[in-house]
Amino acid sequence: ADKDSLQRDLERIADWSRRNNMQLHEDKFEILNYTLNHTKGLRALPFSVECYQYCTSESGDIIEPAFYVKDLGIYLTNDASWGLHIATIVKDAKRLAGWILGV
């Protein structure tokens, strides 16, 4: 399954980093599960949408699913909407305009 494939990939990356004397900042790992439909009808179907947890190392650090992540200055949300990113840009623009105009 996809869950197992992702877990194997994470383990391979961790092994590769150890073999090459590289340290990963595992506390900064984030996972985003996209859910495009939040309607009751989807929840009534005979299958469930599960959010899985993944381990990053032998120490048992767990990557928890996040509601949003910031990547290269862009806010990505688990419902694939741009609302959070746009609100952040507007807030920063208002702050900067207030500073420039002395309001």
Characterize the structure shown.
The model has no long low-confidence stretch (mean pLDDT 81). The strands form 3 sheets. The protein has a two-stranded parallel ribbon with strand order 1-4. Strands 2-3 form a two-stranded antiparallel ribbon. Strands 5-6 form a two-stranded antiparallel ribbon. It is α+β, with helices and mostly antiparallel strands and 103 residues long. The termini are far apart. The protein is built from 3 helices and 6 strands. The radius of gyration is 19 Å and the shape is elongated. A hairpin with a 2-residue loop joins strand 5 and strand 6. The longest helix has 19 residues.
Brief overview:
The protein has 3 helices and 6 strands; from the N terminus they run H-E-H-E-E-E-E-E-H. With 103 residues, it is α+β, with helices and mostly antiparallel strands.
